[in-house]
Structures are given as C-alpha cells and as structure tokens.
Design a protein that fits this description.
233 residues; alpha+beta; SSo0622-like fold; four-stranded antiparallel sheet; 8 helices; 11 strands; 21% strand; tRNA wybutosine-synthesizing protein 3 homolog
C-alpha cells in the first residue's frame, strides 16, 4: 500500500473516533475551519478549541499549570462576567488560575510540504493567579479588570480565526491550481521576464492570493500544532 493510501486509511480511522473533549463536539467558531481542513485529502484534525476562558484550581509547577491535576472551576467559550468567577472561586481549595487560551488546532499532515502552509505562531494568551491555598489574593476590582482584558482577547481571537480561515482558503486554492498545472509552473520558471511582468500587473488575478499568503505567514495569529505522517506508520 502506498503512502497516500495509508494516510487516507489513517485519516478515516481518526475522523471516525468519538469526540472525547469535555464539550463532546467541535466549537461553533471553528466548525468551518475544521471542515475546510478535513475536506482536503492531505489533512485531518485530531482536536480543536476555538478559544476559552478557564478558571482552574490546583497546584502550580513553577509558572505552569498542570491541567490534568486541576479542578476546572469554570470554562466558557463566550465572554465572561465577574459574578461567575467570584462564585466559582468560592470552590477553590488550592491555587486558582484565570486563563485565556486562543485557538488550539491539532492537524495531521500527509507530508512536510503540506504542513508548511499551516506554520504560524502566537502569544495571544493570558494566565494570572488569583488565589493561594484557597485564599483570594486579589480584589474583585482587579478580577473585573482581568476579565475585561480576557474578553477583549476573546473577541480579537474570533477575528483572527476568521482572518486565518480566509487566508488558508486562498492558500489552498492557490496550491490546488499550481498542482493541477505542473507544466505551466515549469514554463513560468523558465520564463523569468514573463513571471516578473505578471507579478507587477495590478490586475493580475493572483494578487489577492499572494497578499493573503504573506498575511498568513507573518500575522501573529493563534497557534496550530501539525504532525507529519510518519515514515514507519
């Protein structure tokens, strides 16, 4: 069996598995993005989160929260209000941490070339301790201030998801056109003057795609984890 067939079988197995997330389904804000990737033969998603505000209660290992050892006091994929956090904090017995996490998307890729189109980075997060050993260490006014920041990040995250979706869609369309005309691609490489003139033409149909490719590459969007199909699978 060739690698393409093996990946196709691996993808079918992955997408047929039950959703083991706490919610049990794909978040509304990333449904179209997940469908876009899973609709391409060279990708499939293994997990995703559109972005969330979390209040965790547990032990802090240095500055990192070990979520597997924590109690989830509150989790929401929508803007959060102070009263909900205050009520949830009353259940805290350890070190409560307020977090905002942007888009998380894990993607399996057929080969390295497929993965390169998804490589982006982000620092669009928030993590602040609120209590220690069950004792609240900050004021309610400060909690309200933090939630305004977290909610702003949530709104910005939704805009970034939409922008990333549009850029990725353009990049994939461009890749499809390129792969479907390999002879023309070689011809263009051998005719540098023609290629130069085409790029300078303001009416060229590829201009929008080229600009979106640069935005996809350089923009500080939410992070994506990609895994390449292993050679020894």
């Amino acid at each position: 069996m060739d690698r393409n067939a093996e990946f196709k079988r691996w993808k079918a197995q992955g997408l047929s598995k039950a959703d083991l997330s706490r919610k049990g389904s794909v978040d509304e804000d990333v449904v179209e993005l997940v469908q876009l990737l899973n609709g391409r033969e060279q990708y499939f998603t293994t997990s995703s989160c559109a972005g969330r505000i979390i209040l965790l209660d547990g032990n802090i290992n240095g500055f990192e929260v070990q979520k597997q050892n924590c109690c989830w006091l509150l989790v929401t994929h929508k803007p959060c209000v102070k009263d909900d956090v205050i009520v949830a904090l009353k259940k805290a017995n350890g070190d409560a941490i307020l977090k905002f996490e942007p888009l998380i998307l894990h993607v399996q890729c057929r080969q390295l070339q497929d993965a390169q189109i998804l490589a982006i980075r982000s620092t669009h997060g928030l993590e602040v301790p609120l209590s220690h050993k069950g004792k609240l260490m900050v004021t309610e006014e400060y909690i309200d201030f933090l939630l305004k920041i977290a909610n702003q990040k949530m709104e910005e995250n939704k805009k970034r998801i939409e922008r990333f979706y549009n850029c990725l869609q353009h990049a994939l369309e461009k890749e499809t056109i390129t792969n479907s005309h390999p002879k023309e691609k070689i011809k263009d490489k051998n005719n540098s003057s023609y290629t130069h003139q085409k790029k300078r033409n303001p009416e060229a149909c590829g201009k929008c795609i080229e600009e979106n490719d640069k935005e996809l590459e350089n923009d500080d969007d939410p992070g994506i984890s990609v895994t390449i199909f292993p050679e020894d699978y």
